[in-house]
Write a sequence for this structure.
């Protein structure tokens, strides 16, 4: 099993990796398919018009998550890592005005968002809660091409065939070039004991089968740079977040107060918690505002890991660039195991899969840079995940604001506490991480659909929107 650190941490835009980045990428994939020869194109047929339907969780919470906007942007050829957040409104308004999209390298296609983009709440698609259907028609309205895509969390998009292949029992041992192909936490610990390497060193060796050391380090620097800039932007901006809930941004005001306390040397027993929380909230307020963020492992949970890294840098003067790399590599190793054996998608397993996974990854990363053994790191991840088990996904009005923003703050606090508890032990503990991940998967399967990013249960129906 190999999931690159650059698959886990992807630079993109808010507010949701599964409901914004994934649908934009799906639209990109459909455009590529139109130009390719991978479908039986009738002789002389030309694509003239497009239609898209969104299903399941994408239909229920797509408006709040900006899914329709993401599809439109994807159909004009914009990509999550390149689109300029400041130009998005203008691009969408132009498509609505013209009733067509004209992606680079393509002719213009008719596409009127009001009628050609359907939020279908009645018919979920069978493969996954986040289903999308893209169709292309000729000038006479004949269907030429149709593809189903699923946004499976963290910005990953697969076709129905790819999803089936992912779920089929694995017949091969995977890529033979990967020196440490751990698919479970137990295998990871066995390989660490056998090799004498840390988790970060094994993950690095796996990554370096795909790229050189300098390229890997530069990529890790870019990820941290994007995370850190997101915190900085979030700490500077005030105002009301978009979407109609009228939720105020709070990170800047809290940050100002913390800076004042810091300068005056006033003793604050909650100091570390407050800094962790404000860093996480800054990221998730940026995310809610549709700004540039990094999936970690999703957008909804994007604040936990950056907040924990920034907290570490804040309180450890001797922190180095190598620490940041080791943090990210260790966190990605844990995220890969969780994704492989359960899910990081709120629409599939609830928020335990998003903020719970992010907290497990952050706890592992922090334990690693604080000198933890592989067993202590696995213990830290397990503690953090265990205490998110059962957490539902019930964003009010389908917006990634309430409870998501504060939830990231609390996820970061739990991650640091979990790392600290694990570092005080010797790594032996009662519940193995693999058992905890399997519990999360089963709990997610048993969870009512109401609590899986549909905004039809929980807080989403018990708080009056004003
Ligand atoms: S409640 Fe959790 S899983 Fe659901 S949208 Fe918010 S952060 Fe994501």
């Amino acid at each position: 099993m190999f999931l690159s650190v650059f698959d886990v941490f992807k630079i993109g835009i808010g507010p949701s990796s599964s409901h914004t980045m994934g649908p934009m990428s799906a639209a990109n994939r459909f455009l590529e398919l139109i130009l390719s020869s991978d479908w039986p194109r009738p002789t002389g047929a030309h694509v003239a018009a497009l239609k898209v339907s969104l299903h399941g969780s994408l239909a229920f919470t797509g408006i709040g998550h900006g899914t329709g906007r993401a599809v439109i942007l994807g159909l004009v050829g914009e990509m999550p890592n390149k689109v300029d957040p400041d130009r998005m409104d203008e691009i969408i308004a132009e498509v609505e005005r013209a009733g067509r999209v004209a992606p680079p390298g393509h002719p213009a296609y008719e596409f009127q968002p009001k009628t050609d983009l359907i939020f279908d709440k009645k018919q979920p698609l069978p493969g996954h809660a986040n289903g999308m259907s893209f169709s292309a028609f000729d000038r006479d309205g004949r269907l030429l091409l149709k593809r189903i895509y699923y946004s499976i969390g963290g910005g990953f998009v697969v076709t129905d065939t790819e999803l089936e292949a992912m779920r089929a029992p694995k017949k091969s041992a995977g890529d033979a070039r990967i020196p440490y192909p751990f698919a479970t936490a137990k295998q990871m610990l066995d390989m660490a004991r056998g090799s004498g390497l840390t988790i970060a060193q094994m993950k690095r060796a796996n990554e370096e089968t795909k790229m050189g050391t300098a390229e890997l380090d530069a990529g890790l620097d870019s990820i941290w740079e994007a995370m850190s800039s997101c915190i900085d932007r979030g700490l500077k901006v005030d105002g009301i977040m978009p979407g109609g809930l009228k939720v105020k941004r709070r990170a800047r005001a809290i940050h100002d107060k913390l800076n004042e306390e810091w300068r005056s040397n006033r003793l604050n027993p909650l100091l570390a918690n407050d800094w962790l929380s404000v860093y996480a909230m800054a990221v998730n307020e940026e995310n809610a505002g549709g700004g540039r963020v990094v999936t970690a492992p999703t957008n909804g949970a994007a604040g936990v890991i950056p907040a924990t890294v920034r907290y570490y840098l804040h309180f450890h003067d001797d922190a180095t660039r190598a620490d940041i790399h080791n943090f990210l590599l260790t966190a990605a190793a844990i995220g890969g195991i969780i994704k492989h054996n359960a899910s990081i998608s709120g629409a599939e397993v609830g928020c335990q899969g998003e903020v719970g996974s992010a907290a497990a990854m952050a706890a592992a990363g922090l334990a690693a840079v604080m000198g933890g053994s592989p067993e202590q790191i696995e213990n830290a991840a397990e503690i953090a995940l265990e205490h998110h088990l059962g957490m539902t996904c019930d964003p009010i009005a389908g917006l990634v604001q309430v409870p998501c923003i504060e939830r990231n703050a609390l996820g970061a606090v739990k991650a640091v506490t979990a790392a600290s508890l694990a570092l005080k032990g010797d790594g032996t503990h009662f519940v193995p991480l693999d058992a905890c991940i399997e519990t999360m998967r089963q709990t997610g399967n048993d969870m009512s659909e109401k609590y899986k990013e549909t905004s039809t249960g929980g807080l989403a129906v018990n708080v009056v929107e004003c």
Observations:
- The first strand starts at residue 11 and ends at 13.
- The beta strands are 11-13, 49-56, 100-101, 109-110, 117-120, 130-137, 143-153, 156-159, 292-294.
- The chain has two domains: 17-167, 185-462.
